[in-house]
Task: structure prediction
Amino acid sequence: MKNFSRRRFLEGSGSLVVTFSLGSLATRAAGAAAPAKAASTSPAPKTVALDEVDGFIAIGADGRVTVYSGKVDLGTGLRTAMTQIAAEELSVPLPTVEVIQGDTLLTPDQGVTFGSLSIQNGGMQIRQAAATAREALLAQGAEKLGVPRTEVSAKDGRVVAKQSSIGYADLVGGKKLALKLDPKAPLKDPATYTIVGRSVPRLDIPEKVTGRFLYMQDFKLPGMLHARVVRPAAIKASLVSVDDAAAKKVAGYVATVRKGDFLAVVARTEWGAIQAAGALKASWSDWQGLPEQSKLWEYVRSTKIIRDDVLQKAGDSAEALKTGKAVSATYDFAIHTHGSIGPSCAVAQVKGGKVTCWTASQQTHLLVKQLALMLSMPEQDIRCIYVEGSGCYGRNGHEDAAADAVMIAKEIGKPVRVQWSRADEHGWDPKGPPTLLDFRAALDPSGMPVAWESEIFIPDRPAKIAVPLVAAQLAGLPADAAHPGNIHQSLAIPYAVPNIKATAHTLAETPFRPSWIRTPGRMQNTFGNESFIDECAAAAGADPIEYRRKLLMSDRRGLELLDRLVELSAWKPRPRGAARSGGDVAAGRGVSYVHYELVRTYVGAVADVEVDRKTGAVRVKRFFVAHDCGQIINPDGLQNQIEGNVEQTVSRTLIEQLTFDRSKVTSVDWATYPILTFPDLPEVKIALIDRPAEKPWGAGEPTAAVVPSAIANAIFDATGARLRSVPFTSEKVLAAVKAA
Amino acid sequence: MAKTIAFQLNGRSARVRVEDPQMPLLYALRDDLGLRGPRFGCGLGQCGACTVNIDGEAVRSCVTPVSTVAHKRVLTLEGLGTPEKPHPLQQAFIEEQAVQCGYCINGMIMQAKAMLDRNPHPTEEQIKQELAQNLCRCGTHLRIVRAIRRAAGTAT
Result:
């Protein structure tokens, strides 16, 4: 396949096969601009301990700083934010800092990149490590300069006294810092910040808009083969027989890999692998264990409950419910798929008993444990290296593709790239589970709630947060129990109701491998809470913002947030909803509010919608978002995240739902699982409340939590119809409008 | 039956030798010619991540047989500019910070390039319609439209 002319013009624009060193690879995967230089060294051993500064930070002989982050950039701008945090706290210029992410040999295990915790937890560990390093450098620098510690300060990578200064590189460059991370090391006064709090342009964007950025899907190894997996025709079907005679005739065919019900085909080229997978004739047993989609909610309600957890309790709700005016409602939230634009991909190599896997996994450290379990191998013989992939909004197919690649590489003894097809991704990524919610309230004569009860029906949550690997399941190898994440969170309400009981019913089974998808559980639970509080306000004839304000009592941050939202959206009290006109198109606006998990980010939103009474079509015109996540690291990056939360969740709310028959997922591409596109998405206006002196909280999820209920409440405002079932398809809207 | 296909790629002559002339152009560009701009998203012509321009038209390279581009002009994201010297469209995406994960952005820029060649000053509505078949999952739509308006000089 090599010819002279091609090689000639390719010079400078890329290379056929990337040669690399493990050391420079991490740098490249980190998005550094220069293509990898051919080299062969392994990285120098380093600690990955969470309580060692060397775990997180290295200062090179050239003064350049390397930050080792267990949290990874999933397309959210985290790399830039982490660079800002480290550069600020170390007092070094931003361009001198480089971040290596999610390499299990090099980076501390800071937990899975999920739950809007990367800045809040991961970033703060790095900030503390940087502060510890800076303090030690200041002390050493003062000594070297022969001045008292109180007379030096840190600036631009140097310890500076009145008459003299010394660079960090001259103090520790290239050597270990050998410091325990000091959780009490003093942090810089935010009033002196010059890097944090600024809209530093994203470091990865110039490469991403010019085709130079290396995504996981671009990663190549010398001698690498290409594989495609062939999944069962029904989710739990067994492989009866395989006829690979036709596949063998495909140019470049190398091997068929079969292990239990795990089936894959390997070829020298990607196109060869695709064709061979299509030519493989596999016969699968019949399996029809899924519930009927049209009876999904009956199925969920009738599923055996194995445990009840009371998540919030105040007073005696059962007794209080017997008084006052009764309000009740049931909500449901469809099964969603992650829908990353780039299907999952991984490259694996098994050499000398050691496994190396390049993966876009949000959880490389956990993946090592899962691969070790699957392969019955010691964890120290497995290394996972993060390479950024297509946007990841939770545990999607990346880990499964990694397991596929490792399994195949081990079988055939050559490095293998596995690229999932669109159907693999839509059909086999783990799903956001179906969620059913029941609410009851009693209102006193003034219309305020005196009792509030909520119940959710959700899959089991075993102790270890993990989603089992498909390859392990299909091959009959050891796999974890499925833990879909903390999907009970945010059922507890921020409102001062005297009698509350919020209960999670844990179900014995759920139809699909359950996973976390952006704002897991918090989105579903907030949809229920904030729709139902709106129903209470409407029953009381109260303005929905004023109603919430009364119930927030003394939460000053929450009240200030609502003030900002009122101002931003020019909200006028609307105790009786929109002035409904008789035309075909009804306009309305709805509000929603969340104090995320009751302990962190505050978000309020107003949605402006138009509902076509004749067709049931809902158009979300505008979203107003007031957002308080404490200290803001990068305002523009935060805005970008908030906009993304809104647009993605408007799509999820209005049109998205998994479809399936008794055997398998049937929404396996963008035609059968459509998402909203440019003409149908709203404008977004944002008010950021910055609190530099406060802790930074997460922003990757909280805004999404308020979107479905804000839209539902706006549809009610416009039409008097309550939409209690996500997605709000035109059929459901039409039926609700007719019934209203 | 191996076949050599010659075409113009980003202003220079290119040749690929393929076993299967029906192989989509995308794999020739990515796997044989080492490009990263055109991206695999669906292989079905549904998402737009693989978009390239062929003789000035935005085309889904994942469903375009490589044999059909013989002697044609193929332009990819790499052919527009570099981080050091970006094309005005790429520069506008940088200035508007119009990227989240960026996986779809190749398609957004190449679709916009073909449109601006045809219609240098599109309205916001025309931009949205032009991009209606390009999917973005991160929700970067507002910034993408702003970037294209900026490049077209129609930003307000």
